[in-house]
């Protein structure tokens, strides 16, 4: 039987930089590549595509050292410069859809900085069957990705 | 959603506690070893360890004078692990975004 599990979460973060600076890190390929993924000995990029505009798509596929292939397929639905981004994305694990999520990113001026509100609604599918332990491994590896980014 | 996810996520919504969980991903460590990586006072650090313990993410065990922390394998279904992973990956990305923006500021100051 196919089931769908639903979840919603909100992440509320503050950045020292202005909404325009934070927005630019989402809007440009060079900027986004610096924090959304990065070169790593554990992960080889297989495919990357970046088209940041309403109706545009973004893909990122990588192969982990363990052999697991993850793929992120995103489409942008609403963009208000320096202020709001709405997108939907599907994650695939070894070719199987595992979740479909709908997100809004709101950038609110906060003094000289920015308050970022990330709200994400998820529908979790069943592509993760028997992959529990592998998922945990991905989580730990994922964070290591950040450590290799040049600061 | 089960309360365990909310408790785990609340515990992971803090950079110190995320760093502790990441460190424990490499294997068990004593509280003093873990605390060595941070500048905060020991009582504050212990508070963080207690939150992780309360959320079921970390187990601690005292042998003599040494308290050892171990990452608790989450007794969650794969879907729950994946939901936590989406949240945690997003938090971790915003940590990296903050570092990237700060690095840009430094480049501009020196450039």
From TrEMBL, chain A:
Domain of life: Bacteria
Pfam families named in the record: AHSA1 (PF08327)
Designated name of the protein: Uncharacterized protein YndB with AHSA1/START domain
Protein family according to the UniProt entry: Belongs to the AHA1 family.
Classification via SUPFAM superfamilies: Bet v1-like
Organism: Sphingomonas kyeonggiensis
Taxon lineage: Bacteria, Pseudomonadati, Pseudomonadota, Alphaproteobacteria, Sphingomonadales
Transmembrane segments: none
InterPro entries: ASHA1/2-like_C, START-like_dom_sf
Residue ranges of domain Activator of Hsp90 ATPase homologue 1/2-like C-terminal in the record: 18-149
From TrEMBL, chain B:
InterPro entries named in the record: ArsR-like_HTH (IPR011991), HTH_ArsR_DNA-bd_dom (IPR001845), WH-like_DNA-bd_sf (IPR036388), WH_DNA-bd_sf (IPR036390)
Species, as recorded: Sphingomonas kyeonggiensis
PANTHER family per the UniProt record, alphabetical: SLL0088 PROTEIN (PTHR38600:SF2), TRANSCRIPTIONAL REGULATORY PROTEIN (PTHR38600)
Gene3D superfamilies: Winged helix-like DNA-binding domain superfamily/Winged helix DNA-binding domain (1.10.10.10)
Classification of source organism: Bacteria, Pseudomonadati, Pseudomonadota, Alphaproteobacteria, Sphingomonadales
UniProt protein name: DNA-binding transcriptional ArsR family regulator
Record-linked Pfam families: HTH_20 (PF12840)
MF (Gene Ontology): DNA binding; DNA-binding transcription factor activity
Keyword check for Metal-binding: no
